[in-house]
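Predict the structure of Arginine biosynthesis bifunctional protein ArgJ.
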Amino acid sequence: MGENTFAIIEGGSIVTPQGFKAAGLHCGLKKTDRNDLGVIVCDVPAVAAAVYTTNLFQAAPLKVTRESLQDGKLRAIVVNSGNANACTGKQGEEDAYTMRSNTASQFNLDADDVAVASTGVIGELLKMDRVSSGIASLPAHLSGESEGAESFSQAILTTDLVKKEACVTVQVNGTKVTIAGTAKGSGMIHPNMATMLGFMTTDAVIDQEALQLLLRQTTNLTFNMITVDGDTSTNDMLIAMASGLAEHEALTPEHPDWDAFAAGFHHVCQQLAKAIARDGEGASRLIEVRVNGAECDDDAQAIAKTIIGSSLVKSAVFGADANWGRIIAAVGRAGRPVNPETVDIAIGPISVLEQSRPVAFDEDAALVYLQGDSVDIDVKLHIGNGSATAWGCDLTYDYVRINAAYRT
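Done. Here is the predicted structure for Arginine biosynthesis bifunctional protein ArgJ.
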């Protein structure tokens, strides 16, 4: 994705594209005073697209959001953290609808113009008195400036240590178009769809079909290529909104600037995906796995995700142990074609396997490399032209500590 086709905007946020405002506050769902309720509002009806978790136990907000998106338009997204509103039966559905109607009322919108998202503990009912009171306070906090975006990005976090944001501009018909995103995700990360919760905004002019197509294609190469722990949540959702306020010729795959827009869109999604992987619960290192020379891209994706999801590989990286045997074992069990005689593996700059035979390497140099903040693993299969990249993190003692006491 040619990086020269877009410009990275340092400090940009979901309110940088024209037409968007945001807010976040603490309504009392979290035990701490961290923000736990937020909203994104568009000044005009925005073209919207979404992808959702593949988990069969889908939280109530996903049902509500699907209904709101039936006409392909949105004006607002309301989000709470601290409670997933998942596996909560009819009452949970009623609560999600109440969140939608209350938000619509506060911002003078139709209920169908509002999407709902929740994240947090599964199986507990929302404290709706606190949620409703918080929603009533959101309009006073709404801002198109950085503080609005900051408060929203903080409001969607659970066990995350840091907010995740990215922003770029591209030229479409000679007009500056902005694409931005924010996301949350730290544990229960193995999406098979998008991310845990992600929200993208742009002022591009694009129809719903084209936006949905781009969203699906891009998530398959970014959010679908990350894993922290192999678990797919009940609440995963990614929503993109396009205000159209850049007022250029409508983008379609046939538009001469489509590739530039798609590259910028891809960059934002990839940065958010990598940030989620890096911020995995208890993680100390980001791992990037690159697979080349597979029979096809799908095979490369499957192999890369098997490696990045291996608890043994993740544990070896945590222990700074250049144990390539765990990598080759993951390659062999991915269920995709491999020639057992032609595999090369490198850990960072250090070649450890060539043509499926061990290579003598400097263990001390490998130790130093593996103790860095990020670790690259390159696998070359030499049987085709398929390639893929996946991201994850190491498996640490803190991951067990955090998840052993998640509810308490």
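The chain has eleven helices and 16 strands.
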